[in-house]
Structures are given as structure tokens and as C-alpha cells.
Amino acid sequence: MESLEKRYGLKVIATSEPLDIDTQDPSVFLLRAFKYLIANQELLTIRKRAKVSSRHAQESGRYINLAPYSYINHKEQGGKMIIKIDPVKQPIIEKIYRDFLSGVPKFLISKEVRELGFPHSGNSAVRRILIDPLYAGLVRVSPWCEYAGETGKRHSRRHRQ
Q1: Is 85 domain-assigned?
Q2: Contacts of 2 by beta carbon, 8 Å cutoff, 6+ apart
Q3: How many C-beta atoms lie closer than 10 Å to residue 128's C-beta?
Q4: Residue 144 to residue 151: CA distance in whole angstroms
Q5: Fewest CB within 10 angstroms: 12, 13, 120, 151, which?
Q6: What range(s) does the Recombinase domain occupy (predicted)?
Q7: Local confidence band at 127 (pLDDT 50, 70, 90 cut-offs)
């Protein structure tokens, strides 16, 4: 902080510190160091809880991000977030899979579904739908969670609709 203060001609103080604090005082340095360490520890604790909570949601089959194409984010009774199939967009996804399994080239599938309202363009848009495990009813679980003491673990769980 001292080098930043000197380089940019400013004074770094916390919102709980008085404006006239003597940042050169060794006892102020020690008190500030402890305050900032405790604040940083709290930040790390919050990050840990969020990561573990996210992992548990994934392991229980819940999708925790913004719903992908043809799904809708929905809040269950009790406040848990889930995704539901969007009945308006579902036929487009079904067409993608049906045509692909029938041997229709992906570029033709892409052209046809764009005409039906599929919003994604590009050479890999249809491929991304085809390889996404969510469209097979699986929720991807993060491969590891250092805070939960797990390493290298990969799962997929069925999601609820």
C-alpha cells in the first residue's frame, strides 16, 4: 500500500478508519494488517461456502446457471432453482436430434432450425447442442472442489424437470 500511495499520491484508508490516520505509525500498520487479514479470511470463507453449495446443488441434479436454449429457469416451491423445458423451443431441439440421427448434415440442420427461430448461428451451434449432456438429462458436475476435499472427481446426475 505504501508504494501505491507514493506512486499515485494517494492515501489508502478503510471506511472504518479516520481520515487523519497516520499510515506511517508502526502500530497502525499492525492493526491494519490484522483487519485486512480478517477481512480476507472472511472473503475466502464466503468463496468456499459458495463453491461447496454450488457443488452440492450440481450433485443433487440441479442446474445452477442461466438456463440454456430450450429451457426456462424456474423456482421450485421452497425456493430452489431448477430448469424446465420450454414447450415453445423444445420442437427445435427435437428436430436437431431427429435430423442428425437421420443422417442430415449439420449445416443443413443449422439452416433449417435458424428458419424456425433457433437463435444461434455458426458452424458449431448445432454441434454444441448435440454434445451438451444437459439435452440428455444430465447435469455436469464440476470436476473437483478443493474446499470440499475432493480431487479429480467427475459426475453427471439426472436433472429434474
Answers
A1: yes
A2: 23
A3: 13
A4: 5
A5: 151
A6: 68-161
A7: very high
Q: Answer whether 0.70 is exceeded by the pTM.
A: no
Q: Let me know if residue 65 belongs to a domain.
A: no
* Residue 61 exposure: Cα atoms within 13 Å on the Cβ side: 9
* pLDDT value of residue 139: 76
C-beta neighbour count of 55 within 10 angstroms: 20
Are residue 114 and residue 90 in the same domain, yes or no? yes
The answer to whether 137 and 62 are in contact (CB under 8 A) is: no
CA–CA gap between residue 58 and residue 72 (Å, rounded):
17
What's the confidence (pLDDT) of residue 155?
Answer: 46
Report d(CA 62, CA 55) in Å as an integer. 10
